[in-house]
Amino acid sequence: MASLKSLYEPSTDLGNALNTNFDVDYVIDYRFATTSKTAAETQFIKLIEALHNVGLATEVRNGDNCALLIFIKVASERHLKAEVYRSRVQDWLYGVRTVAPKKEIQQNLKDEPITEAERLRLVYLLITKPKNEGGAGITPKSGEWTCVESIFALHDHQFNKAWIKQLTSKYFLNSEDLAEIKDRFGEKNCILFCFFAIILPIFDIPSWFWVLFLVFVEYWKKQETDLAVQWGVRGVSKIQLTRPQFKHESTATDPVTGEEIKVYSPFKRLARQLLQVPFALTAALVLGSLIAVCFGIEVFISEVYPGPFKAYLVFLPTVILTVFMPALLSVLTGFATRLTNLENYETTDSHEAAMVSKIFILNFITSYLPIFLTAFVYIPFGQIIVPHLDIFSLTVRPFAENEKQLTAPKAGFQINPNRLKGQVIYFTVTAQIVNFLLEIIVPYVSRHFFRKVKEVKTNRAMKKSGTASPTADDHPEEAAFLTRVRNEAELSVYDVTTDFREMIVQFGYLSLFSVVWPLTAVSFLVNNFIELRGDALKIAIETQRPVPWRADSIGPWLESLGFLSWMGSLTTAALVYLFRGDGLGPDGTPWNINTAGLLLTMFFSEHIYLGVQLGVRKALSKIDSPGLQKERAERWTVRKQYLQESMGQEAADNAASGGIAGGEKISTSTLEDAARMSTLKGHGTPEERFWQRQQGQAETIAIGKNYIAKAAPKDKFESKKEL
Amino acid sequence: MASLKSLYEPSTDLGNALNTNFDVDYVIDYRFATTSKTAAETQFIKLIEALHNVGLATEVRNGDNCALLIFIKVASERHLKAEVYRSRVQDWLYGVRTVAPKKEIQQNLKDEPITEAERLRLVYLLITKPKNEGGAGITPKSGEWTCVESIFALHDHQFNKAWIKQLTSKYFLNSEDLAEIKDRFGEKNCILFCFFAIILPIFDIPSWFWVLFLVFVEYWKKQETDLAVQWGVRGVSKIQLTRPQFKHESTATDPVTGEEIKVYSPFKRLARQLLQVPFALTAALVLGSLIAVCFGIEVFISEVYPGPFKAYLVFLPTVILTVFMPALLSVLTGFATRLTNLENYETTDSHEAAMVSKIFILNFITSYLPIFLTAFVYIPFGQIIVPHLDIFSLTVRPFAENEKQLTAPKAGFQINPNRLKGQVIYFTVTAQIVNFLLEIIVPYVSRHFFRKVKEVKTNRAMKKSGTASPTADDHPEEAAFLTRVRNEAELSVYDVTTDFREMIVQFGYLSLFSVVWPLTAVSFLVNNFIELRGDALKIAIETQRPVPWRADSIGPWLESLGFLSWMGSLTTAALVYLFRGDGLGPDGTPWNINTAGLLLTMFFSEHIYLGVQLGVRKALSKIDSPGLQKERAERWTVRKQYLQESMGQEAADNAASGGIAGGEKISTSTLEDAARMSTLKGHGTPEERFWQRQQGQAETIAIGKNYIAKAAPKDKFESKKEL
After folding, report:
1. Closest chain A CA to residue B711
2. Contacts by B670-677 with C-beta closer than 8 Å and gap 24+?
3. Closest to B238 measured CA to CA, from B496, B625, B548, B553
4. Domains of chain B, residue spans
5. What is the per-residue pLDDT across B298-341, written as a single tens digit (0 to 9) for each?
6. Minimal CA–CA distance to B147: which of B7, B259, B40?
7. 0.90 surpassed by pTM
8. What does the alpha-carbon distance between residue B175 and residue B569 come to, in Å, rounded to a whole number?
9. Does any CB of chain B come closer than 8 Å to the CB of residue A683?
10. Are B60 and A595 in contact (CB < 8 Å)?
11. What is the nearest CA distance from B170 to chain A, expressed in angstroms?
């Protein structure tokens, strides 16, 4: 644990620097290494002016290597308070809050203190919002702000340290833990941890039955809404941030708010969205061929080729994959990005969702296709296909001793039934460990290494050119702090979607293939435990402090989850049917499959899935969630209060209870008045005369009794009673 | 059209009576033929007192045969207005209205006049609501009100006449027509007509592709919400009426309103709901066997039996069905009712929904099972089964001339491929016509017949016993009116669910089997046209005026629609696959089916269905409905107004637009103040000193420029520019 300790105390020689952020809200990393001096100066002046114009105070310090660090804080607390209050009012206008903020700003802020996340989010918005919406309009690396490398908040190292310590010492997160994460890192990042906290108990049950995944997805949907209500962010996705890159075609009047809004034709967008189909097909074809070829080579080498160097040659496909896959993926991701930009979304949320769906396609192919190939091509059709794998002999020709080694046996080849399990174990254990190392340890080590290299380089360069080190100007009181900020400026930006992607891919392995290796669940249980702490460490140490955005849902990932859990109902059934015996399929001849039986099994499994889904949804919809209940109660109280204010207490009670209790009773005098009126008018209309024949209930009763007495079958019943 | 005319002018000899309702809101039909005189009198007195206690005025007149007619109206208009206002406030409290009603009752009623439906609904509630909720607590035929046969409003014959005339003269209903129906008969009944109005265009397209049904169901869901918003009843199902029959186990505090509510354990209810499973199984078994036996007999007689009376004997199964089916159905419906009562629902809505789902099961079996048997048993397996139908020879033994006629041929039997089409035509055309006659013409004729019979009987009885006719006391001015009311009292109660059931069953034929006979759609087009007018006629003439309940959805029927449309994707695929050649299946031997092919076809079809459903839902969710938009705009306006009232115009604008426009700018003086303060305090904290190193943007800019000048790679870029 010594190394862990050093992780959350990045460098002890910074001393006191870790204990204070000097009240800094944000730091802008201003880099001008590739800009001319004049341009850098002009842009810098514009930047500072823009910041001051929106009420932000600035301090500038030297950065590393042609960089400035611009420290930002809100100039006056009063201004911040107004901003917070404005945001809360907006929430209420959009229906995110049910209770209107108190009319008195001071009172409101006293009742609901400003959280750190709220402050940081609003300051970030002040810096980045377009000018016409009241922000400084600064978007890193785009438009006129080419020198703005990044805008980041400073880590609260004391909190981080305590937080990591706390996380490593407990297994489950409770709602206080989550609330703390929320108040520090914002709802959008926190929801990842909630997802972990809720997914863990599911993985706890070492079962591979897909019904669990289904229940999980539905349960999460409910939980999500509940959390959103608890955090007061339900419906926050309605208040969307306009993408600065959005290009509008025309303007229109918003039918709701009456404000002018920018519009882009949805049909044009749809036409562009349709490009996703060729994109998906190309990705499937390109990645699929690469995977299939490597798969073929691997099978050939491991199961056909008997020649020398076999032990090394089996790694050949891995090498091919390692070389080509990242290249192909980066090209395809580039395509995806361009496609998403082309789709020209108005809001960051929809842009992100569109990107996520494209990335999901790529992930799906790379993560699951190899196992699909083994399960549904190699095992059933192996005996037919493997003899034709001679074509891959090319890859090992230089090593072969004779021609015979390069020819697949035409008969008698037996498929390797352990291949599938081996592959699942590889993807769910080995790959996860490798991934964890790549994600946490490697960046940490490499960062330290490169920092050292840089230091040496800078020193040498300075000695050579004679310019002073950027740290030379540092005030001794701030030196340690500035060193820390310079280090944080070099960290990468935290992207919560990466972590989500990992979770979803894992969920996919579990729901699609855990039937092959029941221990998958256990392996993920361990993995998730580590992953959660790893992600926390990543946020705390490996990346810049994320902007605490709000979110009320995991958004586009929910669809991926649903898709994977549905798909699991099909693959699980197919796998169970195909490998129900010794893993060799029915009759020992794996390629002789009863298609009707297979289809029927899948058909059944899927319909049980759909049925259970319906049932679970219904059942969950009947259970009242505490969050929604709270929301309804609040809404009720607000409206009741409004009524009380405008109608007076008693009247409001009456109106609300819907009773007649407060209504006046009809008295004879009312009727007499009516009668008098009709008399005054002469004999009244036929309607009036009709209603005056019996005045008051006494007359009605008397006449009615009379009618009954006449018509009732008196004796029969009376005498019966007497008997 | 002469007969139609006579239909909407029920009896011309009533003369002026059709033009006035004497301001009567409701009539209570009080029957005491089976009660003792004393009990009848006591109950009558209690009834009148209860009515007067809630502010209702009454008049009593003689009814037919030991009956009283109690006429009810609201005693004072002021009381009605208070009641209407109270209901509107309640709507607002529950979120049905977005705009709070004006604080001044008079102003509110002037802005939104009371519709007839609103008035009638509220008066009905006054009569029937439990006493603790401020009503008179009168529930017909239950509890202490055994003599209260029915509570009904009087028809507005002038409106009815004009309405029927208008309906018969146009093909499509526009939104004004629907609004008029709504204001007269309430949203719950009107939604039936909307369903007709929207379903008709669908049936217009003579296509059998199930995608249409799917689109229809999704489109209707959207349309429904829109209508609800337009009518101002969205979410009205939240304000539910407590069933007087509901038995509670304990009381609890409502977490939303804080009022005391009655609770029944949901687990107990669930346990009782599970009884639906054996109920459905029993129903399927009992009805299924009856249908299967009749089906077998029919096949045997029509296709095996060559003996005498064959032309008559083929009707034998129909006779059996006609005799036993209604009996069985009524027993099963009785069971369903008892089961639903046992489930002990709190609200009428949930009670109705539970009943509907049970009735749907019965309907599903009786309507579709015969066709399923032909399509999926008779045609594929006919050659195997028919030779074993000898068992049914028992039914024709008395008529057979020799034993040979009773033996099925062991070989060479050919199934009749036209049977399926014939059956579909029977169910979709013949049965509909028969049904229409049973529903509209027969009750009309029989009612007139029995009325005559009754008149004759009454006259004879009176002559015999010497008692006066109940009409003897009638005031001449009211005589015609009272005759009319006595007639209306004898009409049955309109049940909108019956009409919905017919529609849904029709929709089922269309979505499940229209592939067999493409003209199904056309036949339903005609049928629906007539049915819509028939239903209108039924409401206007055949039944008592319905209580204008509100509703925001067709509720439980929506699930049935979805189920049928999904099922259609399966049956259509199966039917297309089985009858893709000459209707005899592949290879001419219909029983030699490629199961895998069949399953694959169904699998594909269903997944296309599910995929299209997802797509359609997404697409429709993106199209903003005018109703929801209106709702959002209203909500926005309300909140904005509230802000304006409490904060003043300008501040509200600023707060709403989320801009900083109104925020104060940071001035040097603010900073100087801060500096002065820190000076006063000594040298301030390190944080204060950090932020005081550069005071104001001018200093920041100057220092920053200095840093840039030092660090920038000046010459390289400058010179490049110069080149």
Report:
1. A66
2. B670/A75, B670/A76, B671/A57, B671/A75, B671/B695, B671/B696
3. B553
4. 21-154, 192-241+275-623
5. 888 887 777 777 778 888 888 888 888 889 999 999 999 999 99
6. B40
7. no
8. 32
9. no
10. no
11. 34
